[in-house]
Amino acid sequence: MRTHSWLFPLLLVAFVGCSKSGGEGSGPSAVTLLNVSYDPTRELYVDVNAAFSKHWEATHQQKVTIKQSHGGSGKQARAVIDGLDADVVTLALAYDVDMLADKASLIPEGWQKRLANNSAPYTSTIVFVVRKGNPKGIRDWDDLVRDGVSVITPNPKTSGGARWNYLAAWGHALRKPGGTEQSARAFVESLFRHVPVLDSGARGATTTFAERGLGDVLIAWENEAFLLTDEVGKERFEIVVPSTSIVAEPPVTVVDRNVDKRGTRAVAEAYLQFLYSEEGQRLVAKHHYRPRSEEVAQKDGARFPKLALFTIDEVFGGWRKAQSAHFDDGGVFDSIYVPQAR
Amino acid sequence: MATHARRHVLPGFKLSLGFTWTYVGLLVLIPLSSLFLKTFSLTWPQFWETVTAPRALAAYRLSFGASFVAALANVVFGLLVAWVLVRYRFPGRSFVESLVDLPFALPTAVAGLTLTTLFSSKGWYGQHLEALGFKVAYSSVGVAVALTFIGLPFVVRTVQPVLEDIDADVEEAAATLGATPTQTFTRVLFPAILPALLSGFTLAFARALGEYGSVVFISGNMPLRTEIVPLLIVTKLEQYDYAGATAIAVVMLVASFLLLLIVNVLQRWSHRRLEARPGA
Q1: Whole-number mean pLDDT of chain A?
Q2: Which of A34, A144, A204, B131 is 20 to 30 A from A253 in CA distance terms?
Q3: Model ipTM value
Q4: How far apart are the CA of B174 and the nearest CA of chain A, in angstroms?
Q5: What is the 8-class DSSP label of residue B4?
Q6: What confidence tens digit (pLDDT) does each residue in A130-169 have?
Q7: Contact state of A12 with B26 under an 8 Å Cβ cutoff
């Protein structure tokens, strides 16, 4: 019976080895794509996927099924880096997509130039949600740091969305007449002194504000703010659009290494192009993202108020710089936080 | 007993040993050692700087402190719950019995959301507690509350069978020999349940150390104040700082292992003491 002690591990290894070689069942008549996205785009892509499948089947006589995966943007990027077979990624910030190039060479460095508008087919911006009637009279960024105002925003260290919030506040202070790096820092520092809770994600912050009734104002993406007021309660919340804010550009890209391995490049690229088509842009607007197409935007203009917008490239020199200066360990956000705790 | 040691219900010691090593190896040893491998990309000073950063130190303090408090609370109240469940028959007993296991089954995020809703300053408990000057949600107290919640079943379920094994006549015998109720408890009952209590404590403590879902909601995640170690690890991962994340994870791993080891030794010692007692 001596043999038995090593037989089992051997069988196990053999078994594991076998199960790897199967699969790859998609014939030419049907194809599946995996779109790895972040949390608030779930409903948007349900619609986009249905419309694209129809479009592709009509033009190419091929059935296409698109699977969706949602989660925190950074978490999703890490899953792809660690081997999740995404054909396309549609994430919350370019920094997360950059990491697909940096950490795993899944895509080329210059990926953001491959599609129009910085590879972001839709945008959003950062706005405020206040309680009905706006009891604290919040109109603009500077009202957030008044005495007695409590602000809800998630932790920029754990939430990609919160990083946009933070950068919007910084950019506002910097671009103000007489604004300097110092004054921007001072503004953001006092802003975070008005934040009683740092939720780990954007939806968590929304829950804190809407369900638990904490805070006077929620800093949120415009599309999330619409979702909250439309679907949770127009009679409870109001959207306040500040005078200036940042253009939040959630980028999309094909994951080259995966589509080439799976032979899905053509359909994956068509899928992303579809987001820029008129139909795609209409769906985008329907889900409260700002469309890139002027025509579609005009039709929906009433919903997307005009404000002075700046991009991350203009003010911060791109995501990589913003990330390392502000959010990495030892960055500005850490130094804003460290002194006030004992 | 020793003479029967060679007779086993399940045949094949070597097969089962092989299985044990493979299973534990594949599921525990290899994943955990890959954790160590990942940290090797850091130099020693980098490692040291990462794991002793003020934020990391504050997080260890909170994680270990709150877990300890929670496990201790569970020892006291879990023992009471187990005692009542074993010794008394009352209407709704089987309902309470099944409620005890609920924290096991409940996704911890659900627990976290529920507790936060209750304890936040607008919640049912929270508004009254805050009127009395206690801030629970978004403070370290809230962390301890969440960890107590998820740890409760461990103490109850380890102590319960032991209590069931102690016959009531042991207490009666103690009483006939003139023991006061306190003496009966401290000299007769408590030593018998101490090993089980210790294992319950260890399990609750260990579970609390790794807890994430329920705590991120109630803690408020304020760096240096209410940030737990698992959140710090997630924060590092959000920056794609894999080595930094694993460095902190390694510290947790080693610390947890040492703690479990100490409690195991304590447990064995209390077992031996129990067995050495005259008449036991």
Answers
A1: 88
A2: A204
A3: 0.74
A4: 51
A5: G
A6: 999 999 999 999 999 999 999 999 999 888 889 999 999 9
A7: yes
Helix H, strand E, coil C: the string for A46-83 is HHHHHHHHHHHHHHHCCEEEEEEECCCHHHHHHHHHCC
Kindly report, residue by residue over A298-323, the tens digit of the pLDDT: 887 778 888 999 999 999 999 999 99
CB contact under 8 A, A1 and B244: no
Q: Going by DSSP bridges, is the β-strand pair A217-221/A290-291 parallel, antiparallel, or unpaired?
A: unpaired
Q: Residues A37-72: pLDDT tens digits?
A: 998 899 999 999 999 999 999 999 999 999 999 988
Say if the Cβ atoms of B18 and A1 lie within 8 Å.
Answer: no
Tokens of A129: 């949600």
A339 touches chain B (CB under 8 A): no
Residue position matching structure tokens 């099924």: A65
DSSP letters along B214-250, please?
Answer: HHHHHH---TTTT--HHHHHHHHHHTT-HHHHHHHHH
Look up residue A142 and give its DSSP letter: G
Contacts of B217 in chain A (CB under 8 A): 199, 204
Question: Is B225's CB within 8 Å of A12's CB?
Answer: no
Please report residues of B whose CB lies closer than 8 A to that of A212: 116-117, 120, 122-123
Predicted local confidence at residue A23, as pLDDT? 37
| DSSP, residue by residue, B83-134 | HHHHH---TTHHHHHHHHTHHHHS-HHHHHHHHHHHHSTTSHHHHHHHHTT-
The nearest CA of chain A is from the CA of B87 a distance in Å of: 41
CA distance A195 to B143: 19
H/E element, B260: helix B242-276
Q: How many CA atoms lie within 13 A of B243 on its CB side?
A: 14
Q: pLDDT at position B55, please?
A: 87
For range A257-266, the mean pLDDT: 95
Distance between CA atoms of B120 and B134, rounded to whole angstroms?
11
Residue B196 CB contacts under 8 Å (≥ 6 apart), including other chains: B158, B159, B161, B162
Phi (first) and psi of residue A28, to 5 degrees: -70, -20
Letter for the amino acid at A74? G
Distance, in Å, from the CA atom of A220 to the CA atom of A49, rounded to the nearest integer, reads 26
Band of residue B172 on the pLDDT scale cut at 50, 70, 90: confident
pLDDT band at B122 (very low <50, low <70, confident <90, very high): confident
